[in-house]
Q: What sequence folds into this?
């Protein structure tokens, strides 16, 4: 009798566990269905008809923590302060939003980067540089949201055509991080005739600091000695850009005066 009673209890427990598992699967299915409505709206009306949250929900695909993907998307956007800020948010901030995890965060960051690359008017090898506007258009989408300062050297041939670009350093712009040896090493290797210096201001303000001026003049003097012209130093930021050449801060060295034209410009770009 005891054995029969135990067998009945085991069967009952097994059935109870199966029912609980079915409820959990059903609940998960309901959570994951949050993207169904945006997906149907996308099919019927096109992507332009969808809200930011609906587009993000389609990227997330599934929800989490009892919320569907649309609710997770809305919560993440509220936490970040909108889609624009979400695009520049660090990994830890995106991951901290309820329902978000490393996989969803990676998907979003990849989508944001794809958008930036599509929007950017990138220079190709052999493209001529005619003005600081060319430099700004090339780097704006990539650098305006960068969390840290990036210092880049754009290598040019004798006709001011692009050879390649080199990332020199990341971090606060200082003379110790941006040493002439590092800046001109690739230029010497590639037999570049000239370089354009580029870096960003994560603050959004392109106005040069005292350190920016000091580093620029130091590199311009080094380039003059080495026979590799520093044509310009362009600071890229959310609010626009600053050209040292246009501002007349490189007048003591061989600059873009013969090959690049235009007065001082600070062109603010807006994102769609």
A:
């Amino acid at each position: 009798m005891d054995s029969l009673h135990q067998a009945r209890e085991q069967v009952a427990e097994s059935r109870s566990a199966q029912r609980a598992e079915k409820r959990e699967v059903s609940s998960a299915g309901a959570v994951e269905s949050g993207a169904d409505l945006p997906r149907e709206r996308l099919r019927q009306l096109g992507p332009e008809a969808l809200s930011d949250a609906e587009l993000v929900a389609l990227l997330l695909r599934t929800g989490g923590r009892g919320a569907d993907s649309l609710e997770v998307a809305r919560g993440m956007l509220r936490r970040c302060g909108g889609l624009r800020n979400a695009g520049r948010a660090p990994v830890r901030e995106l991951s901290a939003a309820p329902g978000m995890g490393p996989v969803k965060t990676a998907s979003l960051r990849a989508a944001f980067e794809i958008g930036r690359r599509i929007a950017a008017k990138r220079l190709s090898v052999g493209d001529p540089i005619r003005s600081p506007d060319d430099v700004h258009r090339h780097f704006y989408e990539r650098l305006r949201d960068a969390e840290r300062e990036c210092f880049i050297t754009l290598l040019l041939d004798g006709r001011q055509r692009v050879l390649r670009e080199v990332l020199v350093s990341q971090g606060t712009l200082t003379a110790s991080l941006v040493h002439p040896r590092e800046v001109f090493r690739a230029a010497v290797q590639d037999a570049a005739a000239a370089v354009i210096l580029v870096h960003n201001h994560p603050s959004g303000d392109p106005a040069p600091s005292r350190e920016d001026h000091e580093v620029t003049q130091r590199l311009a003097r080094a380039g003059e000695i080495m026979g590799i012209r520093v044509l310009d130093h362009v600071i890229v930021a959310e609010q626009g850009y600053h050209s040292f050449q246009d501002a007349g801060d490189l007048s003591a060295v061989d600059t873009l005066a013969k090959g690049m034209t235009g007065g001082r410009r600070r062109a603010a770009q807006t994102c769609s």
